[in-house]
Amino acid sequence: MARPKSYDREEAVERACYAFWAHGYAATGVRALEQLTGLNKFAIRSEFGGKEGLYLAALKHYADAAKDTLLAPMRTGGIATVEAFLQSLVGEDSPGASAWGCLIVNTGIENAEIRSPALQAAVNDYWATLAAHFAKALRHAQAQGEIKRSINIDDAVQGLVTAVMGIHTRNRVSGRHDAGMPLVRMMLQQIRSWRV
């Protein structure tokens, strides 16, 4: 008979998410994960397939939370939802703003050295999802006559995604949740130029 689990999986993944977000993948060892999550080495291996598996679960937790909260308004909204999303990246008490930057951005940067295909796939999936949300909101805005028909949506989306990466990177490097504010202001000014 299997032993009952002595931990809550979802809570452990959430704690791992914060540990990796604050310290990074390479710098967070299994012993630290045991202390920070309540998982033991056996559980990390058997439940998640090891440290990378736990990290992937943490990335999924992080991405799902963003999709369910920060990105959700862009599924049905227009240009105001894009502006609100950008402001959320540097807003005080906003779930989208952090002195740690963004776990997805941090992972992409760190994975340039680690070279894990699984981590890269998770990062790429998130950026594709963000791009799809931006595109949906901008197409809706164009259809509603909020922004000019001459705006190239594909180029605008790629510019917005790249700006998001830069905003989070600036926050992380500076250790402040609002360090990316100048880039947010610049992007909001750019978006205002798109309006009819």
List keywords for this structure.
elongated; Arc Repressor Mutant, subunit A; 196 residues; 68% helix; mainly alpha; Tetracycline Repressor, domain 2
Entry summary:
The chain has 196 residues and is an all-alpha fold.
Walk me through this protein's architecture.
- By secondary structure, the protein is mainly alpha-helical.
- It has two domains: 7-65, Arc Repressor Mutant, subunit A (Orthogonal Bundle); 69-196, Tetracycline Repressor, domain 2 (Orthogonal Bundle).
- It has helices spanning 9-23, 30-37, 41-48, 51-68, 79-88, 103-114, 117-143, 153-174, 181-194.
- The protein is elongated, with a radius of gyration of 19 Å.
Order of helices and strands: HHHHHHHHH
Rg from alpha-carbon coordinates: 19 Å
- Tally of strands: 0
Helix content: 55-70%
Structural class: mainly alpha
Unreliable parts:
none
Instruction: Kindly estimate the percentage of residues that lie in beta strands according to DSSP.
Output: under 5%
Q: CATH homologous superfamily of the largest domain, by name? A: Tetracycline Repressor, domain 2
Largest sheet: none
What global shape is seen?
Answer: elongated
CATH topology of the largest domain: Tetracycline Repressor, domain 2
CATH architecture of the largest domain: Orthogonal Bundle
Which CATH first-tier class of the largest domain would you pick?
Answer: Mainly Alpha
Helical region count?
Answer: 9
- Distance N terminus to C terminus? 67 Å
Assembly context of the chains: single chain
What is the arithmetic mean of pLDDT?
96
